User: Fold this.
Amino acid sequence: MKDRLQKLGEEACGEMAAAGDLEELNEIRVRFLGKKGELTQILRGMGGLNAEERPRIGQVANEVRAVIEEALAVRSAVLKDMVKAQKLRSEGIDVTLPGTPRQRGGRHPLNVVLEEIQEIFLGLGYSIAEGPEIETDYYNFEALNLPKDHPARDMQDTFFISSEILLRTQTSPVQVRTMEKTAPALPVKIIAPGKVYRRDDDATHSPMFNQVEGLAVDRRITFSDLKGTLDLFAREMFGAKTKTRFRPSYFPFTEPSAEVDVSCVMCGGRGCRVCSHTGWLEILGSGMVHPRVLEVSGYNPEEVTGFAFGMGIERIAMLKYGIDDMRLLFENDLRFLQQF
Assistant:
């Protein structure tokens, strides 16, 4: 049995040394060392040996097992190194090839313009106020002097969720909510940026767009304060040589009201295709807060006055950067956005 064990060990070591891959090596291991392997079968036959031979044969069997396991470990390490080397060769990277450049992101033009607007008014002592985009009919219309069935509601084609709940058509509700919380304290100086929604969709309108509205309420505020504030804003936003023009207009929540134009940013006011050869471009609406709006918000219109204004951020961005189609701002086309 001793000779048989030694011969088995030599045979196993030889086959393991010749194994071409790990799978073949594992088959050899199972054949010799597995539960039904050849070495196991020999050891099961030790029961037929006499008591004197068993320890000697058992020692030989353990030595043979150790030799086989060592040969197995050595060949396994060699084969693993071969697999690793082959994998490195097949997946090798040529470090001399040019790398893939990492694209750098940038701020969206709407965010750039919004931040500029905020910086201007924060510098004038205004604070930023926010409110819900899903509003009630009361705050979006009634508290702004637009009772039900008022014809001026037709100017704002609205997404209604129910008869009393809607997507806000302007950020003006934030003005009312702020005054309700603040009254009767003075002054109130806020800007209210945010998304608004109207059923418009063409080259110059979008069903979702961004607004910034402003409100200032205090004692002895006049229309001159409004003009001075917006004139400063226009020069800060479009350049020191920018001029402003106020045209009488109508808004239910302000009285008197005015549309505000700036001298054309393309031609400097000389007249061109962009400004329809008028030299002026409309940028926002404004006016003195209507006494009824002050009253429902908790202020006495006999004691305080205020002005308000509102602008579309997209409109400002289109004028500032010469964009001729508002839809470009929402299409996420990198060819367009990378220009900024």
Observations:
- Strands lie at 127-128, 134-136, 165-167, 188-197, 208-218, 244-251, 254-263, 280-289, 305-312.
- Residues 31 and 165 are 78 Å apart (CA to CA).
